[in-house]
Amino acid sequence: MATPLEISANKLHIVRFAPNGKDSFHESVVTKVRSYFEVNHISPYANTAMWVKSAVMLLIYFVPYMLMVTGVGAGNGWIFFGFWFLMGLGMVGIGTSVMHDAQHGTYSPNKKVNSFIGHILEVIGGYAVTWRIQHNVLHHTYTNVAGLDEDIESMALLRLSPRQPRNWYHRYQHLYAWFFYMIMTLFWMTAKDYLQVVRYKQHDLLIKQRVTLRQALVRITLYKLFYYSYIMFLPILFSGKPWYYVLFGFLIMHCTAGLILSCIFQPAHIMESSGFAMPDNSADKNLMEDSWAVHEVINTTDFSPKSRIVNWFIGGLNYQIEHHLFTGICHVHYRKLAPIVQEETRTFGIPYHVQPTFFKALALHYGMLKKLGRE
Q1: Distances from the Cα of 66 to the Cαs of 28, 61, 84, 88, 231, in angstroms?
Q2: Rg of the chain over all Cα atoms, to the nearest angstrom
Q3: Beta strands in 166-317 (DSSP E)
Q4: Where are the domains of the chain?
Q5: What is the DSSP letter of 232?
Q6: What is the C-alpha to C-alpha distance for residues 303 and 354, in angstroms, rounded to an integer?
Q7: Interval 165-222: pLDDT, tens
Q8: Which terminal residue of the chain, N or C, has fewer Cβ atoms less than 10 Å from its own Cβ?
């Protein structure tokens, strides 16, 4: 089996998945899901509920901001910091229920509509190009493949795959990982986009995004200036609170968003049940043992399938298996697709990982961090 160092992002075309084969799981589940939409005469894109939810998520973020910069609650520190906390929840909602679907093109068959909505990412401090490469190109294609899936290549202090080298300090990662989860979005909104765009240029991953390194760096800088101007400077000028209150509130917002987002995404893949397979590079094959669809199911975990509140707030990402198999379908449909996918996995003898609650999944993720640090 290949080691992580033997695979690099500039050789993506070399890593291949096993063919689906005739009457494959992928072919069968796609046929069943397509039939579901046709029989029920519904569109796989956003429905009215999705548009209403999108508006609600935007309001959770922008209403506290407007109240803050207009001086509401200026005399009460708890109200002021409460606004920042709500904005952190709004960031989560925008990230999981608005931006995420738009970047996957599931709001509308019109690409311009999806592109327009997707640019909300720049409004909350990110950059769409690097996000699409990391998430759509790398994570969704090479889920849990060490060296290719950047979601598990976060930093040396965290060991998120049994394929990665283990150091002595990883023994304690189940304790300190949560701090790094909290600062995830803070790092993203400051340095991550710059580091990624340079790396992606080196690996020829900017070409398909139709952007040069110079263009990307200029746009990132302009977007960051816009973001920090409205998120930091305007509250300092107009909220009636000193700059250190604003700075602390800003940290509250990002720590809230970072921790919640990490706790949504990590239990979906960093679990003991995940396969973490690597390609066989004997005779330069670099061929994965499973087909892409089977690999995605094996390396993904659903949770809280019965909780409509969890499903609503986190944009259906508790149905990660369905999302990975059908990225072009809006998340409001995942709850109905899950029984179809589960039945097909049962028919083809493929393990379907699902945990009954969010906290059960989170506890198992904690256990996996501990195991990865000690094995």
Answers
A1: 49, 9, 11, 14, 11
A2: 21
A3: 287-291, 301-303
A4: 4-374
A5: I
A6: 5
A7: 999 999 999 999 999 999 999 999 999 999 999 999 998 999 989 999 999 999 999 9
A8: C
